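Follow-up to my earlier ticket, as requested here are the two runs.
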Amino acid sequence: MDQHRILGMALSFMPGMNASFVRHMQEAGVSVEEFFSSGQQELSARLDVRITPILDRMTRDEALFKARNEAGFMERHGIVSRSLTDEDYPARLSDIDRAPVTLYCLGSADLDPDRIMSIVGTRHATAYGMRYVAGLVEDMASYFPGMTIVSGLALGIDSAAHEAALKFGLPTVAVVAHGLNTIYPAQNRDLARRIIAAGGAIVSEYPSGVPPYRSRFLERNRIVATMTDAVLVVESAEKGGAMSTAAVASSYGRELIALPGRIGDEMSAGCNRLIRSQKALMAGGAADIMAMLGWQPEAVAVASRQRDLFPELIGRQKLIYDALRQTPEPMPVDAVRERTGIPIRDLIADLGEMEFDGIVERLPGNRFVLIAY
């Protein structure tokens, strides 16, 4: 590995080192090579700081030793580092005050594409959320064949976003909360392999051997929120990782978009609150999101169609739609018949057609609930 990269990586092994200090070094004209080779007194003078443990020679030597060991692991496994002192550090991430000093990357994805969007949400995704993600990514891929989808490799919405990107030929980046010697959750190891094989990447700010503690997922979320142009939240309870990501995105001026859901649905409560409080724009189809972001389409596939979250229904289906919309609870078919007055034979036929079109979902007990509205 290039010596400059090892030195840049060594900064991240130093206790107390952060992006602000690295930027201060750069502004003072102290290169990373000079930081590790100069004496304490010289560094103190050039950086205009007191002699602190961060300038201690033994501390610096120990960090350099750890970085060299990590470099050996990285070379054996095809991992590359991108530190704040490197020219190829992701530009969108480099400006935030809590930028990781070093990123570890497994895979070949471009982390500075022209267009990049994060999609996050609950691990307990519903059919509504999963269907929306797949449809949106398909349509976005037809408009922007080279855009990148970022998420966190968690189960639920994160996995749906990565899977959709793979299915429709978009590079996807998974930001994880542990060292790249493992993959968490274990159920997504095959997904991680497919992401890398398809030209995507697995990214972490942690060196090998660092386990996935709870606090590290919250730290990881700031990367998902800021290495991107926009963050789309698809289903989230009032509290959770997706809401943490949304808060960070908003605080750093990233465009925040949320998918609305039925009032009373626990997994839409967070999204509805973001929209209600005007912290997030309301998600629609791909064309709506393009307009929000000011993106001009590169290409449009002939087969691509705009998916409408608010279907224009007529006749009996409009009556059924309005009846189901009155309550967040699944409605038995007899209750739908009572509210609409539609003969049972016609009602069953219409519900079957609406289920096929992805408007309603049939649940056990012959109960129905809206998927998109």
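Run two:
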Amino acid sequence: MRPLDLQPGQSVLVQRDGFVAAESGVKLDIAFTKKIGAGLFGGEGFILQRLSGQGTAFIHAGGDFVEFELADGESLQADTGSLVCFDDTVSYGIEMAGGIAVSLFGGEGLFLATLTGPGKVVLQTLTLEKLRREMQVGLTS
């Protein structure tokens, strides 16, 4: 878990199930995806929650948090399941990763998020799907 200190006028989009708790000055809303395909086909349920207002909110993720500060126009691609949160100043899109064969046999999710700055992006190093896979390997070894 980690705290997010929201300043007045700041808004952060958090991946589904990433929000834990917040002070009373923080408002939680559903953030509708910009493209219908992003919500319907975004891999591990690409649903976003918007945190805004002022105060501290707590989010959680699997493994470590990895932060990127994207400059204006700078882009980053990540598996949708690895995405924890990003500033609402960051634009995003969802696209299929490779082809079906790559997705089925490559061990990764079907969809990638392309995030374009400016703003902060936070990823997690251990998605729920990766944890399940590792636990199954450990049980069969």
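The only thing I checked on run two: Helices lie at 36-41, 100-105, 128-140. Let me know what else you need.
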